[in-house]
Amino acid sequence: MATRKRAGVVLPLIATVALSGCAFLTRSSVGPTDSEQRSQFSQQPGTSANGRFTTFVSGGFLYVRDNVGNTTRTVGDSVSAVSMSNDGRFIAYTSSSGAEPGTTVLDTSTGQTRVAGCGGGRVSGDGHHLAYTCVGSIDYLGHTFNFLFGPYLMNLDTGAVAGPFAGGGASLPYQTVSDFQISDDGGTVMYRVDTVPTGEQQIQFGFANGSHTNGASPVGTYEFGLSGDGTRFVVATRDEPAAGSSTIRIGATSAPTTYLHTYVSTPVDRVMLSRNGALLGAVVTIDGVKVAARRATDGSDDWRIVSRTADDTRIAAVTDAVMSSAGTWFAFASDDAGLVAGDTNGVRDVFTRSVDHVVERPTG
């Protein structure tokens, strides 16, 4: 497909072939039929590797949309911390209405659920492993301080658990795990450790064999991501003081204190890597608009905006976005009512779009 450039971004030119019937862009936050619209805004988008399945939360309920079969299934209520395996079979989430604390893992092929670990868990790409943190507390000088310790790595098939790798302390200062990512095979977990009250931060990596290693210590506010194969990671720091740009650093988990690539970008708010670490997805601000975009991790190309209309003539702002492990599909939340025909509910929706135009919907 031909492209045109402007100000650090690539915009695809309008395709010369007929686009009618193509499903490279679809509104996924609909009911059992395409015409049944949500009355409450939708958020927390998620997508399978091939874009067939999309998860979203609307009105506190978790739904999964089959973009091929045009069916929408209710999964749970009072839901947070949603993740999905690459094939869309396993969905993990935390529900505050559940009778049993922990992370619920649903096998969509059988309808069976199980509760494992603590809340806020994330399922691996292969669906057979779970990473999670637990809540602890310390009493110091008459005050109670809560923290998250972990992450743990659990094999859902055998029940074997590695970790916790960080968190806690007997007094001030203490450590808390503020975020984490898990590799597709459950062998690696990347996480951030914050020290309270000093504000020190460090990236660390834990492994299924129980070992862990320290990574870099970025300064300031930043986002990070781990490739599905567990070999690459990204750290995107919001530069100070103007916060008008972000520094993106790509590294290898085998040498986590050094970086393979470093470059400056327009501000990013969320980053993610494809399974092999070759593609970088992000929510990035371009010309004052937050959009879903993708580029090569080595910085050799510009951002390619994905959140746009079907004819590529207009960019749509997003509130959140995720890239599939294959790097070919995005699910994003947007308030834009002009992305697809018939969007008249007047609230935020979740959309699924391929990076490039495709002739048919995903079939696997």
Q: Can you offer a commentary on this structure?
A:
- The chain is mainly beta and 364 residues long.
- It has 2 domains: 216 residues, no CATH class; 128 residues, no CATH class.
- Helix content is 0%, strand content 49%.
- It is built from no helices and 30 strands.
- Strands 1-2-27-26-25-24 form a 6-stranded mixed beta sheet, with no helix packed on it.
- The chain is globular.
- The relative contact order is 0.16.
- The N terminus and C terminus are likely disordered.
State the strand order across the main sheet. 1-2-27-26-25-24
Low-confidence stretches: 1-22, 358-364
Number of domains: 2
Helix content: under 10%
Overall mean pLDDT stands at 87
Backbone CA Rg: 20 Å
Portion in beta strands: over 45%
Question: Total number of β-strand segments?
Answer: 30
Précis, in short:
The protein is mostly beta strands and 364 residues long. It is 0% helix and 49% strand. The N terminus and C terminus are likely disordered.
What attributes does this structure have?
2 domains; 4-stranded antiparallel sheet; disordered C terminus
Note the topology.
Blueprint: E1 3-6, E2 9-12, E3 25-27, E4 42-47, E5 53-58, E6 61-66, E7 71-76, E8 79-84, E9 90-95, E10 103-107, E11 112-116, E12 122-123, E13 129-140, E14 143-155, E15 161-162, E16 174-182, E17 188-196, E18 201-207, E19 212-214, E20 222-226, E21 232-238, E22 246-252, E23 261-265, E24 268-273, E25 279-286, E26 289-296, E27 303-305, E28 320-323, E29 329-334, E30 349-354
Parallel strand pairs: 2-27
Antiparallel strand pairs: 1-2, 3-30, 4-5, 5-6, 6-7, 8-9, 9-10, 10-11, 12-13, 13-14, 14-15, 16-17, 17-18, 18-19, 20-21, 21-22, 22-23, 24-25, 25-26, 26-27, 28-29, 29-30
